[in-house]
C-alpha cells in the first residue's frame, strides 16, 4: 500500500558523485576528517616539543599541562642563569676584597626531605591514623587501652631495692601505704586494685611478698615462696605469662626489685599441692637420690 502514501512513486535515491577521473592505483587515501570543519578557535603558540620554529600548537585544554610544564622549565632555566650571574659577581667582589652578604642558595635546586620533613610526615601520619581510628572505632587509639596509652608509663619512676622485711610492710594492712606485690624479684604497685590484693581480698596473701612459685603451680596456700626450683616447662611458661601480665598491665607499675636470701641447694623442694603431680615427681627424686647414694657406697667399697 505504498502507493497510497506516495501516489507519485518512491523518490529516486541519491547516488554519490563519481569523480571524472579514476583514482590512481598507488594514490594515498585522503584523510576521513578532511571534510570536517576545524572548530578549534583557541590561540596557537609555538610547539615546545618541536625543533621546527614555525610549527605551532593549539592552547586547547588537552595541551595546557604540557604548555604549563614548558613554561615552568623555561622559568627555572632563567632563574638558574640569573643565580649563576649573581654568584659570579659575588666571587668577583670577593676577589677584589669588597664586602659581600651571605652566599645565596640556588633557587632551582631540589630540596632534600631532611629530618624536619620526616618529622612532619610522621606527625601528619599519626594524626591521620588517630582520626581514622576515631571515625571507624570511635577511639583515637583504635580501642587500645594498654599501658602504652597511659601518660605515667613514660614518666620515669624512682625504683628501689626491697628486702623481704621491708616488702612485707606494703601488704595493704596500713591504709596510708601502697600495696606492693612481687613476682620473681620484680615489685609492682597494685594499689589501684586494693579490693583484690588488700585485706579481705581474694589475693591478699600475694601482697607484701614474692610468691612466684604459687603463680607457676597454682598452689596459693603452700607455695608462697620465690623458690622456683624443680618447676616443669609448663609451669615456667605459666610463670613467664604472669610476669608479662604484670609488666604490660595498664595500671600496675614497677617500683623496684626485692632481694632474697640465697636458697640452700640441699634444702627440700616444696612439694606440689596436687597429690598426683607430687607422686609423679617423687619417684624421680628418690631415684636420683638412691643412685647418688649407691654411687657413693660403691666408691667406698673400692677404697
TrEMBL record:
Q: Ranges of Basic and acidic residues compositional bias?
A: 271-292
Describe the location of the Cytochrome b5 heme-binding domain by residue ranges. 162-259
Annotated SUPFAM superfamilies:
Cytochrome b5-like heme/steroid binding domain
GO CC annotation, single: endomembrane system
Instruction: Give the compositionally biased regions (Basic residues).
Output: 293-303
Q: Segment Disordered: which positions?
A: 1-64, 80-106, 263-303
Q: Which domain of life is it from?
A: Eukaryota
> Could you cite one Gene Ontology molecular function of this protein?
heme binding
Coiled-coil regions listed = none
Short name of one Pfam family for this protein?
A: Cyt-b5
Instruction: Write out the similarity annotation.
Output: Belongs to the cytochrome b5 family. MAPR subfamily.
Name of protein: Cytochrome b5
Originating species? Gloeophyllum trabeum (strain ATCC 11539 / FP-39264 / Madison 617)
Source species taxonomy: Eukaryota, Fungi, Dikarya, Basidiomycota, Agaricomycotina
Amino acid at each position: 500500500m505504498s502507493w497510497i502514501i506516495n501516489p507519485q512513486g518512491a523518490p529516486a535515491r541519491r547516488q554519490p558523485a563519481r569523480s571524472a577521473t579514476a583514482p590512481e592505483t598507488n594514490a594515498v587515501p585522503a584523510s576521513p576528517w578532511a571534510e570536517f570543519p576545524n572548530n578549534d578557535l583557541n590561540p596557537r603558540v609555538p610547539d615546545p616539543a618541536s625543533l621546527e620554529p614555525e610549527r605551532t600548537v593549539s592552547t586547547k585544554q588537552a595541551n595546557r599541562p604540557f604548555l604549563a610544564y614548558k613554561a615552568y622549565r623555561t622559568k627555572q632555566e632563567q632563574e638558574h642563569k640569573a643565580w649563576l650571574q649573581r654568584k659570579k659577581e659575588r666571587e668577583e667582589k670577593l676577589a677584589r676584597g669588597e664586602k659581600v652578604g651571605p652566599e645565596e642558595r640556588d633557587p632551582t635546586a631540589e630540596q632534600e626531605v631532611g629530618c624536619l620533613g620526616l618529622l612532619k610526615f610522621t606527625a601528619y601520619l599519626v594524626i591521620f591514623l588517630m582520626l581514622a581510628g576515631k571515625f571507624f572505632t570511635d577511639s583515637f587509639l583504635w580501642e587500645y587501652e594498654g599501658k602504652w596509652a597511659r601518660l605515667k608509663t613514660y614518666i620515669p619512676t624512682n625504683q628501689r631495692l626491697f628486702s623481704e622485711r621491708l616488702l612485707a610492710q606494703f601488704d595493704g594492712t596500713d591504709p596510708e601505704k601502697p600495696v606492693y606485690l612481687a613476682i620473681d624479684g620484680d615489685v609492682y604497685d597494685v594499689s589501684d586494685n586494693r579490693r583484690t590484693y588488700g585485706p579481705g581480698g581474694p589475693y591478699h596473701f600475694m601482697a607484701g611478698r614474692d610468691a612466684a612459685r604459687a603463680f607457676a603451680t597454682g598452689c596459693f596456700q603452700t607455695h608462697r615462696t620465690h623458690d622456683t626450683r624443680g618447676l616443669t616447662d609448663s609451669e615456667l611458661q605459666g610463670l613467664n605469662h604472669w610476669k608479662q601480665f604484670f609488666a604490660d598491665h595498664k595500671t600496675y607499675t614497677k617500683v623496684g626489685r626485692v632481694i632474697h636470701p640465697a636458697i640452700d641447694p640441699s634444702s627440700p623442694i616444696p612439694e606440689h599441692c596436687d597429690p598426683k603431680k607430687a607422686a609423679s615427681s617423687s619417684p624421680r627424686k628418690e631415684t636420683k637420690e638412691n643412685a647418688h647414694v649407691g654411687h657413693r657406697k660403691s666408691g667406698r667399697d673400692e677404697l
